[in-house]
Amino acid sequence: KNQVEQSPQSLIILEGKNCTLQCNYTVSPFSNLRWYKQDTGRGPVSLTIMTFSENTKSNGRYTATLDADTKQSSLHITASQLSDSASYICVVSAGQLGGYQKVTFGTGTKLQVIP
Amino acid sequence: NAGVTQTPKFRVLKTGQSMTLLCAQDMNHEYMYWYRQDPGMGLRLIHYSVGEGTTAKGEVPDGYNVSRLKKQNFLLGLESAAPSQTSVYFCASIATGTGMSPLHFGNGTRLTVT
User: Fold this and answer.
1) Cβ pairs bridging A and B (under 8 Å)
2) Which residue, among B43, B94, B101, would best test binding to A if mutated, counting the most A CBs under 10 Å from its CB?
3) In B, which residues are within 8 Å of A34 by CB distance?
């Protein structure tokens, strides 16, 4: 069964600090991994996508890494801002390249940035 | 572009009542999905559609029905609501099913069944 596990479940950090969120997955055959940001009361929004051959992908202050050998990904947030307070969801797609993808969602890490 | 629009935003039902959730997208996407989000669980797929006139079951389809009569609309129906269906429901769409495009989500419908 395909699974995506995230840690920690929740995290509180001071504004301006950095943090790293973790994602472990057992999904086969792996196609790609995305990180989504979900603000309270809103739908998730894609931050980054990485395929098997990519190790790092950045989107502003967000940097995602992927280790396909250990099946781990991380999302690093630099110089956090109050607006970073949200849930961050790791989503892994399985399937053949160009074919229909089956998507598995993690349970998310709830990040709170405090002044 | 409005993206993906869900109506209503909130609803309270009594056990046994029925309702329809509407999802509309203006991006000409082929694929549309209905998910439910519950505390401590990842988004779970209820039903999906790979094109106008088609529907298929996801991982938690029991108690729900769907229809995709028009490409831009995807309806989720609850024929006889149960307290276990209390959840936040998200609709999403994607241009193709190949996974290289992101899912575009609506802002959800919060449903409470008493």
Assistant:
1) 54
2) B43
3) 102
Residues A57-88 have pLDDT tens digits of: 999 999 999 999 999 999 999 999 999 999 99
Are B50 and B30 a contacting pair, CB within 8 Å? yes
Residue B83: pLDDT over 80? yes
CB contact under 8 A, B107 and A41: yes
A47 touches chain B (CB under 8 A): no
Report the distance separating Cα B51 and Cα B53, nearest Å: 6
CA distance B30 to A47: 22
List CB contacts of B53: < 8 A, sequence separation 6 or more.
B68, B69
State whether A43 and B90 contact (CB < 8 Å).
yes
Distance CA A111, CA B97 (A): 30
First to last CA, chain B: 36
Tell me if A41 and B100 make a contact (CB, 8 A cut-off).
Answer: no
pLDDT tens profile B43-79: 999 999 999 999 999 999 999 999 999 999 999 999 9
- Residue A13 and residue A82 in contact, taking contact as beta carbons nearer than 8 Å: no
